[in-house]
């Protein structure tokens, strides 16, 4: 399974997922069709599936154009309005790319119907706007309890699982993480790494479960009340 980022808008990543054996390609959260179709064509890949994690326009805005251009089947959360959806996904649903079998978990908080797509054997998870490297999504629809639980579920995956997030927010998240844990060496070291990568305009993703357990203050929060305080503080934090 080959996974390639397609940068879109100012800080989104749309992920192209290709299975060499079957020749199948999926795209996760195509907010904009143009760069996705261009990258797929450049690689000689034909998109046969669209997977959405939640309804926000910067994740679904290109659904119909990609579907029109390729005939791709659209799978997205049952509980949300997803343009062009053919397949309803909910907790326990299965998705497939060639012989790769993924499963759906519900991770409410950023939106109420938000889902994540997990490929256990491949140690891969597409987490949308629920978890970011060293951070998490804003609570637009859900409660702090829901989001805290969602982050715990994602970081209960094996330590080496790679988490593919949908935005490049890592630098500002890392600055907040250092603010939240000023004496923490692993957090400070990661900030330095992220500053270097972003200084060279390089991607900081995917992250791993191990890294998030160590350096993500929202994941490290001991309960939802601590999580809620951090989330409110981050909303007004200026790095
Ligand atoms: Zn979103």
UniProtKB/TrEMBL annotation:
UniProt record similarity statement: Belongs to the metallo-beta-lactamase superfamily. Glyoxalase II family.
Subunit structure, as described in the record: Monomer.
Keyword annotations of the record: Hydrolase, Metal-binding, Zinc
Binding site for Zn(2+) 2: 58-59, 129, 167
Residues at which Zn(2+) 1 binds: 54, 56, 110, 129
Co-factor requirement: Zn(2+)
EC number annotated for this UniProt entry: 3.1.2.6
Chain ranges of the Metallo-beta-lactamase domain: 11-167
Note on how the cofactor is bound: Binds 2 Zn(2+) ions per subunit.
One Gene Ontology molecular-function label: hydrolase activity
Matches recorded under InterPro entries: Clx_II_MBL, Glyoxalase_II_hydrolase, HAGH_C, Hydroxyacylglutathione_Hdrlase, Metallo-B-lactamas, RibonucZ/Hydroxyglut_hydro
Reaction(s) catalysed by this chain's protein: an S-(2-hydroxyacyl)glutathione + H2O = a 2-hydroxy carboxylate + glutathione + H(+)
Pfam family, one: HAGH_C
Coiled-coil region(s): none
The gene coding this protein: gloB
Protein name: Hydroxyacylglutathione hydrolase
Top-level EC class: hydrolase
Domain of life: Bacteria
Organism name: Sphingomonas limnosediminicola
Biological role stated in the UniProt entry: Thiolesterase that catalyzes the hydrolysis of S-D-lactoyl-glutathione to form glutathione and D-lactic acid.
Pathway, per record: Secondary metabolite metabolism; methylglyoxal degradation; (R)-lactate from methylglyoxal: step 2/2
